Amino acid sequence: DISGYALEKNLVDKYSIQIEMASKNHIIAMTSVADTVYGFNKLENAIKDIDTKLTHIPVKLLEDYKYYKKTISVIHPRAAMEKNSSLIKLSQSTGKISADYYIPSPPGIPVFIPGELITGEITEYCLSLYGDSQIRVLED
Predict the structure, then answer these.
(1) At what angle do helices 37-52 and 4-15 cross, to 10 degrees?
(2) CB of 131 closer than 8 Å to CB of 86
(3) Distance between CA atoms of 114 and 120, rounded to whole angstroms?
(4) pTM for the structure as a whole
(5) For the range 46-51, what are the long-range contacts, defined as Cβ-Cβ under 8 Å and sequence gap of 24 or more?
(6) Which listed site, 4, 23, 52, 104, has its alpha carbon 20 to 30 Å from 65?
(7) Which pairing describes strands 85-89 and 134-138: parallel, antiparallel, or unpaired?
(8) What is the C-alpha radius of gyration for the chain, rounded to an integer number of angstroms?
């Protein structure tokens, strides 16, 4: 009932807790040997407090989530990286050939690599993850 982005904003604004990263479906909270019991308790209590204010909906099974289809390799990755390229908005990338890697983290698995065709389905998927970022594509 809450996106990772909304959870991040809530943690920062109401609890003064900064997380490492947020995406549409999750957050990442990093810890280190310098963290204290107080800090862990503060995070735990904040998450519990936020949770009590949510409307709980059934958890989706992994197969319920939409994933992009298999990519289409147009040219060899090295050749794509050596060709002239330019930065464009992700929303304008459908039909273009990638000149770079697009690797959301987590899970750290490439959505596409240099030399692959960026389809509408892939563009839509990437936009849902991090919004309209810039990517490098081959020049026409």
Answers:
(1) 120
(2) no
(3) 17
(4) 0.60
(5) 46/11, 46/14, 46/15, 46/17, 49/15, 50/2, 50/7, 50/10, 50/11
(6) 52
(7) antiparallel
(8) 19
- 34's tokens: 């310098």
Q: Which residues pair with 102 in a beta bridge?
A: 112
pLDDT in tens, 88-98: 999 999 999 99
- CA 88/CA 99 separation, integer angstroms: 11
Residue 115: CB atoms within 10 A of its CB come to: 21
User: Helix, strand or coil for residue 80?
Assistant: helix
Q: How far is CA 6 from the centre of its chain?
A: 14
Report CA-CA distances (Å) from 38 to 3, 18, 42, 65, 116.
26, 15, 6, 36, 48
